[in-house]
Amino acid sequence: MTNRAFTELYPAELETAEYVETLLRLGAIIVGKSKMCSFATGENPGDWIDFHCPVNPRGDQYQSPGSSTAGGGASLAGYAWLDYSIGTDKQLPIRILYPKEFFPAANPNQQNLLENYICVLENHLKTSRIEFSLVERGARCPPEEAEGKSLNDYLGNLRALLIVPLRRAPTTITTTMQTTSMMASERIIAIRIDGNPMWDLLCDIDGKAQLGVFRQWFHENVLKQNPDSLSDSILVLPQGKAIPEYRDDAV
């Protein structure tokens, strides 16, 4: 999780993931483990605290390497002899979900890249994308807790966590992590907010409850959970604005 507090509280895994074992049996050579931002929170390069952010070797080498899988992307961009970077160990999905609210991307070049990627994905999975509307699905089968409100109205400001990453000045905060073992431990975690308001929103009791309701609704009506592969679907979304993002840019 690229966080010292997590590393101190949770021991290293003693077993190799089944997905990685399969790759090894097929002849893959694992050369190392790359970094991700702390708890996959989408930190900007200047917000990393416990570890240094990977360097993006593309362009002038001062661009941001991205968010959660920053190390994996930087590794593939920097070393021609690397073929793949492993992100999540799960089985292949059987459905490709294409939410119409997010497409087409504002940048035509970005949309072309996304379209090419989705076509490759369709060919690899031997399936076709399913175009659908989150708004329409929410209106057709809303959560009971919404009490007649639309998903947009029910979630309110929490939509910022789900759709639009709002920006503001970064701040350093601390919080507490507890293990789930019988001898529960506590450890102060230093996390730098990357301009996303999620920490303030999630500290609100009502916000936590609303997000929990949405999570359950989403898993029941959009990305249905599967005990063998986490989900039977993959949701494709545009990422970022396809413009230069420098490491030292203010957020």
What this model shows, in words?
31% of the residues lie in helices and 12% in strands. The protein is of the alpha/beta class and 251 residues long. The strands form 3 sheets. A 3-stranded parallel β-sheet has the order 2-1-7. It is globular.
Quick summary of this structure?
The chain has helices spanning 4-9, 18-25, 70-78, 108-125, 134-140, 151-155, 159-162, 198-202, 205-221, and strands at 95-99, 129-132, 172-178, 186-192, 225-226, 230-231, 233-235. Helix content is 31%, strand content 12%.
pLDDT averaged residue by residue = 76
What is the helix tally?
A: 9
* Assembly form of the protein: single chain
Could you give the order of strands across the largest sheet?
2-1-7
The portion of residues assigned to helices is 25-40%
Number of strands: 7
Percent of sequence in beta strands: 5-15%
Specify the overall morphology: globular
What is the C-alpha radius of gyration, as a whole number of Å? Answer: 20 Å
Q: Return the structural class.
A: alpha/beta
* Cα-to-Cα separation, first versus last residue: 23 Å
Uncertain ranges: 163-185
Order of helices and strands: HHHEHEHHHEEHHEEE
The major pleated sheet works out as: 3 strands, parallel
